[in-house]
Write a structure and sequence with these properties.
Dihydrofolate Reductase, subunit A; 5-stranded parallel beta sheet; single chain; 3-stranded antiparallel beta sheet; alpha/beta
Amino acid sequence: MSADGKIALPSRKQTRISNEQDMARVHGLRNECDAILVGVGTILTDDPKLTVKEKYVQDATNPLRVVLDSKGRTPLEAQVLKGDAPTLIVTSEGSESTFGQAEVARFGQERVDISSLLSYLHEKGIGKVLVEGGETVIWAFLREGLADELKVFVGSMVIGGERSPTMAGGEGATSFEDIIPLILRKSTQLGDGVLLEYEVKG
């Protein structure tokens, strides 16, 4: 995120915040995980591949790509549906959408039940999940107590704008008791930015 906590422009168009040092960190982290998870908003806005670039990681292995897509809106031409890595699209039980060769799982009535999804992934041998975003998904994992760690790279820039998305969006805390407490474990300068590593208090 930027120094003022934004992750994209007011138009929600993605803008580069990470520097090369942080990009190498992110791809190294992807390579260590069993799955990378994003929400469908990230797919519709950024159309990422969610793969590990060999530019940053030698002998890269691509983890499972997981997309939370309650209403089945992932476009069939999306990068995550190409054969670079296995993909799981997760919809609510009310959706009947299919996505080519991608695996589909359905949990929850109107929205994806994340706890049920994580149990399903655990049964498949998926142990370490990297939740990359976007803001609604990150808030959901924090709110439901499903995150162990939070790693935030802060780039040296200010984006501004009342409508610019922040790192954790969604409904947000409605009272002091709803605020998610963190424990700062480490801070590291990466080029002209800083990486903050938190433990999420259970």
